[in-house]
Structure formats: C-alpha cells, structure tokens
Amino acid sequence: MAGDMPAGSTLEADQVVFNQLRQLPRYRIPSILHDLRNLERKVFPPNEVFPFEDNPIAKQNMVVLVGLSNQSKVSEMVAYAVCIRWNGRLLLHKICVAPAYRRIGIGTKLIQMIVECARRWSCRGIDLWVHEANYNARCLYSRSGFELQETVTDYYAKGRNGIKMCHVLEA
User: Structural domains in the chain?
Assistant: First the structure.
C-alpha cells in the first residue's frame, strides 16, 4: 500500500520501466538477478522460491520481465514476472510486486506487459496458478481478463489450494 512505501517515496506506476531481462545491458544482469533473488526470498515461502541461479536468460522459451523504478539514480527492483512459452500458450509462472509498492497499479501494468508479450508471440492464451487464499492477486487477474478454470486441493502444500486461471487471447 502507498502507506508502506519507503520514507520519502511517492512512486507511481508510470515511474516503473519494464524490460525483458535479456534485453538489458549484460553488465546490469548480475545485480538485477541478485535483487530478484532477494525479493523472491522476502515474498515467497522457501518451497516456492524460483531458482534464478539457473540463468533464465539462456532459456529461449522463458522471459523474465523486470520492473525498475526510474525515480532515482539507482534503479530499484519493484516488480518482476517469469513467463514460459510452451505449446502455443504462455505460462505465467511467477509474478511479484514488492510489498512496499502494491496497490498503485504496478501489477496491472505488469499484467498488461505480459498480455502484450503473449500476443507478440502469437500465444493462444495465458495460464497461471494462484493461491486460493490470495484474494488480492485473484482480483487483479480477474480484472485483467483471467477466468477461473479449476481448483486443486493441496496444490502448493497441505492445506494450500491452488486455482488455475486462464486468459484466452483473441486471434
């Protein structure tokens, strides 16, 4: 929430620049991956942490979108998404907005970028899984055109159900 932002920060969604990780200058990638790993460990339980150590830019069917604040001289990691192209579809494997920057439109902007990427790659749709209890994320996805497909009991862990949502893209 806006009240949770670092002191003196008034970041707005239009002050976040999104890029594909592999399109950034090579010298910046190690520090960005470091920031991704740190944010990932802060936000997700240990059993759900993505292995960014596996060099995601080398995987041609994977895209990592990163959102960096352009508010100061030092870019700050604000959001990211990991998507995998497979069989004519895009799997939104991971999406994260830093807790201090939620509820100001960054997640919506990131979803819009993901939809644009999927269309550019001629994907038929976008699939994702979300925790059943993650009401805010489910609302974001629904507002962005995703529809509930199924619920799987204990998908993430015992007592942590997952919901599959899909966004069909028009041809």
Answer: 13-123 (3.40.630.30)
